[in-house]
Amino acid sequence: MKVLLIGEGAREHVLAESLGNSSESYRVYALSSYINPGIMEVVRKTGGEYLRGNVSSQEDVREAIRTVGPDFGVVGPEDPLFHGVADEFRKEGLPVIGPSKTCSQIEKSKVWMRELMWKYQIDGRLRFRAFTSLEEASKFIMEYGGSVAVKPSEQVGGKGVKVVADLQAYLSKEKRSALSRSVDEIGSLVKSEVKIIIEEKVDGPEYTLHVLTDGYSYLPLPLAQDYKHAYQDGIGPETGGMGSISGPGNLLPFITREEYEKTFEIVKRTAESISKETGDTYRGFISGQMMLTELWGPTVIEFYSRMGDPETSAIIPRISSDFGRILQLAAEGRLAKAMLEVVPEPAVVWAVAPLGYPLRRDLASGKEFQLDLERMREKGCKVYFGSIAYEGGKLISKGSRALELVSIGDFEESSRRLESCVKLINSNTELIYRTDIGRGIWEQQDKAEIVRYSYLNRVKRGTLGVSKDWSPNGGLW
């Protein structure tokens, strides 16, 4: 059986590996804009073929489908979904993992997502206002007295989010003025008419739940947590993710079973609401980027219409059942037959990027990497290739996170193991990575306990989700 994988990063390397290791003996074919060495290894091992092309081009994907004649497809990244690549498989009558262009709006448009949650009264929703005028957005920031988060209205690769909290009154005016000045910068990232979305600010530990659905059945995967900021201890610019943790079991050390089940209910209801709103059945991954807050408990920050990266590297290696076959069952509408088994031990992921990432990707491009894969594997580290190409017999960086290193086991032990493995990477540039990922878990447990006390008190008082200065229809008074 032939499967065509669309994408080229570490997430797609993990997906390719799960397909290549399946008992179904899939022949893995791939379409990428460059040759990912990890995906290439799987393609060669399974007797498939590696195709080059634009993964977001419907024409290139149609040509790949005609060339390969796959039995089903897997679309990894969000941009191809936004451009209707999954639709191309379905036009040919082929099963595919990945929602339609219409359904993937849940990730592409933050405004559409918030409006949907309010229309269908889905728990965990935040109050918001959307602005087509950057001037009006700036004016609102200066006049509104509460804490806010300012975001681009569309998915722009994790860029542009700004937050102001009114914790110190004497700094309020200065902070608001600085945030107001950044509105033009945020708005410049967006192509649509609606430029800016301003949400009420919430605080708490973040986590992600990925759910796989065929439109009939829903399979929640283990929780993961992404570490967005570029530098140690969560400072610096936001990135696509500098690492991740998952486990133990299906949970995280700071999220309870009840919170997991509530989060699953929120994500499932959202997928059902998308189908109802669009008339197009949601099929593929839908992932809730969540925060545990005193306002709601499990609270939606945003949704993905695919698996997250690097969360995929923390989740799938912990799945002991045949995940490749699970993907096929979901694509074919037979997900009810899937059995998901997860190892109890947690996983820790460290991403490694060249100097220059994330602000100067031109400086992070074209750098040469060498690594001792055999010794890294002997030490217990799995390696997934991301924004790095096999060119002329060398590994050359493409400007983003080049590698993702994974260790399964106790958090502290895994972090020490990763620290020894990252030393086996050489490059002609300085490397950027965070050694705090997987450490200091107790701090998040303490924070979660404080938040949990507050939102459970709201449950007792019947005030869950109630915020005094925001109107009940999702906007401001």
From TrEMBL:
**GO terms for MF:** ATP binding; metal ion binding; phosphoribosylamine-glycine ligase activity
Q: Which domain of life is it from?
A: Archaea
Q: In which pathway does it act?
A: Purine metabolism; IMP biosynthesis via de novo pathway; N(1)-(5-phospho-D-ribosyl)glycinamide from 5-phospho-alpha-D-ribose 1-diphosphate: step 2/2
Q: List UniProt keywords, sorted A-Z.
A: ATP-binding, Ligase, Nucleotide-binding, Purine biosynthesis
The record's listing under Pfam families reads: GARS_A (PF01071), GARS_C (PF02843), GARS_N (PF02844)
Q: Does the keyword rRNA-binding apply?
A: no
Which GO BP annotation is one of this protein's? purine nucleobase biosynthetic process
What the entry lists under InterPro entries is as follows: ATP-grasp, ATP_grasp_subdomain_1, PreATP-grasp_dom_sf, PRibGlycinamid_synth_ATP-grasp, PRibGlycinamide_synth, PRibGlycinamide_synth_C-dom, PRibGlycinamide_synth_C_sf, PRibGlycinamide_synth_N
Give EC number(s), comma-separated: 6.3.4.13
Q: Which residues form the ATP-grasp domain?
A: 115-332
Q: Which family does the record assign?
A: Belongs to the GARS family.
For this protein, the record's PANTHER family field holds:
PHOSPHORIBOSYLAMINE--GLYCINE LIGASE (PTHR43472), PHOSPHORIBOSYLAMINE--GLYCINE LIGASE, CHLOROPLASTIC (PTHR43472:SF1)
Give the protein name, as stated in the record: phosphoribosylamine--glycine ligase
Q: Which organism is it from?
A: Metallosphaera yellowstonensis MK1
